[in-house]
């Protein structure tokens, strides 16, 4: 490996390129109303808002399943009601993470590659339409991708500095620990990365007889304390240190609750690691490479090229630099992690190419994009070097890269033409919520016109945007995040709220059926394939009766 330093011109070019791509995507997403397509994005925004806008503002408003860092980063921006209600608040931290990801990936690639090959990896990564769309939303994938890239980058640079710059190595070690803590508090795959990465740091220092460093042990305390803090939080706030994995909102319980009755497994990857791995790699291919008709072998060829390019690049390095290069393999960790998660962690992935021929969790394949992009950069570098050894005309390497950039541009065009799969899943997600989002808020606004501060009992985990679209603050509702107040309201709904919104089969619906006294149905909303909603009025709160209405969507 040669020391390839990035010039100021390169750095500014990458930064401006990423900023322009991000800005264009944000404008497109805003104009097309796509920022709130994903229900999870809406939920992230509302969790952040509840930290200060709730009947009981406190730490437990962060919830029990999703890790807290994305919500804490959103909190300053959701204070603006318009930014919160429209989803613009989510685009700010996500787009900043995207820009940092681009800068980090290019800097990582330049440790091994010439500018042309590094630029190819950057273009494949940065101009991926699925990533560009996600960075306009409040989804956590852009942030986690950014953390992963910089963890790997700093690990590589730390390993390279150990021999000749111990002061800089110490600074990088602290940055690595901080990034690992951030990853632990962002997504659960961050726990695996933290364990592997920090263990590798410790083993390297042990081999070099430098494990007695005070800085290392202090950083180790922080890395180890991060997941323990999450256990303690769940125990204190919800009475169970594993509440995030076995509580009512955990992935396992949701899968059991939503799985269709069947004599067979709930999904193809159920308890089958090989099939689960195939599903994940296929989703990563569909996220990154255009596949006309869903059956093209182009994705398989691109993935094979990325893998072979990575292996070939590793074998070309001398032993000293190979030790640093090995850290780049952490970018491939999503493949085994999600294979296990699909098989045993209640996290299925569906796409239209394979049974059950639908969209679900396709965005998880995006975490593989940095490995994909960097691997293709390595493959291009190896190919250009091979052409050089064959004594071809001098323009052969340049022509090769020109062809590869043209193929990357063609891939972008094809992905856009066939509609990016992650965006399609988000649009399908929005379609299922749209009837209620359009019909219920105007009706609530009509009811509230006579009593603007009336309390509403509702579950905000399924249709959280109903609050924002109605134009009321969260503290005007009693919802599932209010814990003791919520349980008391379910025991006496008519006494607790003026308006009660129940979806067939949910906790509020069961509470209304158990305690129907003084509750009058005011409207019923139905939509194909969705549980119907009924709005009740409490006679204990209202001074005049309203004529029952019925809406059929």
What is the molecular shape?
globular
SSE sequence, one letter per element:
HHHHHHHHHHHHHHHHHHHHEHEHHEHEE
What is the number of helical segments per DSSP (H or I, 4+ residues)? 24
Classify the beta-strand content into a percent band: under 5%
- Tell me roughly what share of residues is in helical segments: 55-70%
Task: From the alpha carbons, calculate the radius of gyration and give it in angstroms.
Answer: 26 Å
| Major sheet attributes | 5 strands, mixed
Number of domains: 2
| Gap from first CA to last CA | 64 Å
Q: pLDDT below 50 for ≥5 consecutive residues: which ranges?
A: 543-553
Quaternary state of this entry equals single chain
Structural class: mainly alpha
Strand order across the largest sheet: 2-1-3-5-4
Number of strands: 5
Write down the overall mean pLDDT: 90
Account of the 3D structure:
The chain has a 5-stranded mixed sheet, with helices on both faces. 61% of the residues lie in helices and 4% in strands. The chain folds into 2 domains: 410 residues, no CATH class; 105 residues. Helix 21 links the parallel strand 1 and strand 2. With 553 residues, it is mainly alpha-helical.
């Amino acid at each position: 490996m040669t020391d390839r330093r990035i010039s100021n011109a390169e750095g500014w070019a990458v930064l401006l390129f990423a900023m322009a791509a991000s800005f264009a995507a944000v404008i497109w997403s805003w104009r097309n109303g796509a920022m709130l397509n994903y229900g999870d994005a809406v939920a992230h925004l509302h969790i952040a808002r509840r930290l200060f806008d709730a009947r009981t503002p406190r730490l437990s408003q962060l919830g029990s399943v999703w890790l807290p860092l994305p919500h804490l980063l959103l909190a300053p921006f959701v204070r603006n009601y318009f930014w919160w209600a429209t989803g613009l608040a989510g685009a700010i931290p996500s787009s900043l993470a995207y820009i940092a990801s681009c800068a980090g990936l290019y800097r990582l690639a330049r440790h091994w590659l010439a500018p042309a090959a590094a630029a190819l990896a950057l273009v494949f990564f940065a101009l991926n339409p699925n990533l560009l769309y996600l960075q306009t939303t409040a989804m956590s994938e852009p942030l986690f991708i950014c953390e992963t890239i910089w963890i790997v980058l700093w690990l590589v640079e730390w390993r390279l500095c150990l021999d000749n710059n111990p002061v800089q190595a110490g600074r990088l070690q602290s940055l690595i620990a901080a990034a690992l803590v951030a990853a632990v508090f962002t997504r659960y795959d961050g726990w695996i990365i933290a364990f592997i990465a920090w263990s590798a740091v410790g083993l390297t220092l042990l081999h070099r007889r430098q494990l007695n460093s005070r800085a290392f042990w202090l950083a180790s305390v922080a890395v180890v304390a991060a997941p323990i803090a999450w256990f303690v939080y769940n125990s204190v706030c919800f009475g169970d240190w594993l509440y995030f994995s076995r509580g009512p909102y955990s992935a396992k319980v949701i899968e059991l609750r939503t799985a269709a009755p069947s004599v067979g497994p709930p999904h193809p990857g159920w308890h089958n690691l090989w099939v689960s791995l195939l599903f994940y790699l296929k989703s990563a291919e569909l996220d990154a490479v255009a596949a006309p008709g869903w059956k093209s072998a182009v994705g398989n060829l691109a993935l094979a090229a990325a893998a072979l390019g990575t292996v070939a690049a590793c074998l070309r390095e001398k032993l000293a630099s190979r030790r640093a290069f090995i850290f780049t393999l952490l970018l491939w960790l999503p493949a085994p992690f999600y294979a296990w998660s699909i098989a045993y962690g209640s996290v299925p992935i569906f796409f239209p190419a394979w049974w059950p021929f639908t969209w679900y969790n396709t965005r998880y394949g995006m975490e593989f994009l940095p490995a994909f992009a960097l691997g293709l950069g390595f493959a291009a570098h190896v190919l250009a070097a091979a052409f050089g050894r064959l004594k071809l005309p001098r323009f052969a390497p340049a022509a090769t890269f020109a062809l590869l950039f043209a193929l990357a541009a063609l891939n972008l065009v094809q992905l856009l033409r066939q509609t990016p799969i992650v965006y399609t899943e988000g649009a399908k997600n929005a379609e299922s919520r749209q009837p209620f989002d359009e019909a219920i808020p105007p009706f609530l606004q009509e009811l509230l016109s006579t009593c603007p501060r009336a309390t509403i009992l509702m579950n905000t985990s399924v249709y959280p945007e109903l609050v924002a679209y109605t134009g009321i603050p969260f503290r005007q509702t009693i919802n599932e995040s209010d814990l003791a107040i919520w349980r008391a309201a379910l025991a006496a709904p008519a006494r607790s709220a003026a308006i009660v919104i129940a979806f067939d089969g949910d906790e509020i619906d069961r509470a209304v059926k158990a305690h129907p006294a003084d509750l009058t149905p005011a409207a019923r909303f139905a939509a194909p394939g969705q549980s119907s909603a009924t709005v009740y009025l409490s006679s204990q709160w209202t001074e005049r009766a309203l004529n029952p209405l019925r809406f059929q969507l």
